[in-house]
Structures are given as C-alpha cells and as structure tokens.
Amino acid sequence: MPEKTVLVQHYRDTIDTRSGPKVKHTFVTDDNRRLTTFKSDVADRASLLLNEPVLVEIRAEHRNGYSNLYLDSVSPVAAKVVAAPVDGTAEDERQVRIMRQSADKVAAQIVAAFIAAGKIDVAGSESISGVLTSLAEKRLAYYKSGPDGPARGTVAPATEAATAGDSSTSGAPAVPPPPGAGL
After folding, report:
1. If 85 and its partner were Cys, which of 23, 60, 89, 122 is the partner (CB 3.0–4.6 Å)?
2. How far apart are CA 109 and CA 53, in angstroms?
3. Rg (CA), the chain
4. Regarding beta strands 3-17 and 53-63, do their DSSP bridges make them parallel or antiparallel, or are they unpaired?
5. Predicted TM-score of the model (pTM)
6. CA-CA distance, 137 to 118, in Å (whole number)?
7. What's the confidence (pLDDT) of residue 37?
8. Where are the domains of the chain?
9. Tens digits of per-residue pLDDT, 108-131?
C-alpha cells in the first residue's frame, strides 16, 4: 500500500556481493526511516523527487532480528489544483495591471530601438506617448491572449484607465510591429 512521505537525503554506496559489486541507494525520509533500493530506475526517480511529497511503496524484510525497508517504487503526489480567480476580482485586476506595466516596458524598449534605427521619426506632430500607448496595447493584447489572440497589427481597445488624461492616443501613428512582436 503506497504511503505519503518526503525523501530528504540520498546516499549511494557500492557494495561487494557474492555475485559482484552492486550499487545500493539509501533514502532517508522526513521521519528518519532509511529506505534501500538496488533498482537504479527507482533510485533515479526518487533522486529527482527529493524534498517533495511523494508516494512510496515499501517492502519490509526481517532477517536475523533486523528489519530492512526496501523502496520498491516512488511517484510524486498529485499537485493540488488551485481555482482560478473569478472574473472581476481584485486578483484579476491586479494581474491586468501587471500585464500593462510589462507591456509598457516592452513598448518603451521597442520604440527606443526603432528611434535609434531611424524607423520612427518623432519630430513634428508624432507623439512618443501615442507610439508607446499603441505598442503597449498591442503587447497587452499578446500577454492576455497569447500567440492565438488578436491578429498581428491590430490594437486591443484601450480602457479608460489606460488612456485617462492622454488625448494623444487617438492620433497615434501606426507603427509596424518589430520582428517577433506578434509571437
């Protein structure tokens, strides 16, 4: 019967047996039991799961007044499913703000690269704020929808919070997306 535990240490020893040398793997549990296995596949899997909750199958053998605990199998404990926040919650709004801030940072880097390459002329009526807002909204749409979201070159509608106090967004120049921007 599998039981839940945490493997906290792993020792590897080579021992000589009548049939030749064997590699003995000893795992220590969080309750200080020593589990032994000679199976390399079980030991490799257990090594990957050190310090994580696992389900183990243990076989006990009693010889000469001693009890040996053998590790026969190990598997990860199923991860707990965390419910996603319901639309309109504070956590949802917080995530949108984080995405917007990230999108603004990316847009600023993209615009700076275009200006340095001479692909965007900021002289005259064009507004840096308008260019940044346009690119930030494209990046936000990507962050929200991923690569299968809105078509490349389209701009997600700006929310009132994103454009409050900025009248330059309506006349923002169209900026070609940089290579990889639609990915």
Report:
1. 89
2. 42
3. 29
4. antiparallel
5. 0.43
6. 22
7. 93
8. 3-76, 90-169
9. 777 778 777 777 766 654 566 676
Token pair listed for 116: 């340095």
Amino acid at 85: P
Q: Mean pLDDT over all residues of the chain?
A: 74
Superfamily grouping for domain 3-76: Nucleic acid-binding proteins (2.40.50.140)
Helix, strand, coil shares, percent, the chain, to 5: 35, 30, 35
> What pLDDT score does 97 carry?
76
Question: How far does the chain reach from its first CA to its final CA, in angstroms?
Answer: 48
Beta strand pairing status for 20-29 and 66-76? unpaired
Q: Which residue has the tokens 């598997």?
A: 75
Backbone angles phi, psi at 58, to 5 degrees: -120, 140
Nearest to 129 by CA among 148, 147, 104: 104
